[in-house]
Structure formats: C-alpha cells, structure tokens
Amino acid sequence: MDAPPEEVRGRLAEYEWLGKQVRAMYDGIDDVRGTAHSADELVTAVVGGRGELLELELDARVFREQDAGGLAASILATVREAAEDAEREATRLAEELVPRRERGADFDPVFGPALHLLNDKSLPGSDHG
C-alpha cells in the first residue's frame, strides 16, 4: 500500500528540515575554537570543536629548564584546558537546538542535538506534534 502524496510530501519536508539543521550544526562545530595558555604563558594550545589539536605554540623559553617531563605535563594540561574551552563553546552552539532542560549531565555537544532532532515529535511536516 502506497502512502498518500501529502504524507510523502510531509516526510520529505521533515527530512529536508532535519538535514538543514544537522548541516548547520556540523558547520558550526567546525568553526568552534578553544584556546588556553599555560600558567607560565609558555605554552599555547588551540583545539577545534571536534577535539582535534589545531595549534600548539611553545615559547623558546620552555627549553631553558630542560625538564622534558615538566614540559610534557604543561602541554597536556594546556591542551586539556583548550579542549574544555572548545567543548563549552560547542555546548553553547548546541543550546540553540536543544533546550537546557532536555540535556543531561552526559550531553554530547556533537551528537546530542542531532539525536534530539531525530526524537523531536514536532518536526515540520510531522503528524505527531
């Protein structure tokens, strides 16, 4: 049994709307940047919205100490801080699509909005809302 044409049009409109939302979210995450500096200002890290390390700057003064372990710890801490900054920005972006009351402590700013949209019963063209 074939679906009535109006139901098909409704579903197509729903999928088109969902696709636009997911693309906007995807593009927005690509623009997210988190930046952090070490406490001594010798290490700077920039992390993208997907958690990837985009930039790492080391001031030439880091080599004065010749403490490889200390430098590694400083780099790791700075990259983690930049990643947290990027995640906060990605979450802010996701807030535009997912109301705070519907986000739990384990909310994923990358996939959470898409999952929310897929579960939304009031999508355009939907007969559920």
Automatic annotation (TrEMBL):
The keyword Chaperone does not apply. Pfam families: YbaB_DNA_bd (PF02575). Keywords: DNA-binding. InterPro entries: YbaB-like_sf, YbaB/EbfC. It comes from the Bacteria. The keyword Zinc does not apply. One of its GO terms (molecular function) is DNA binding. This is DNA-binding protein YbaB.
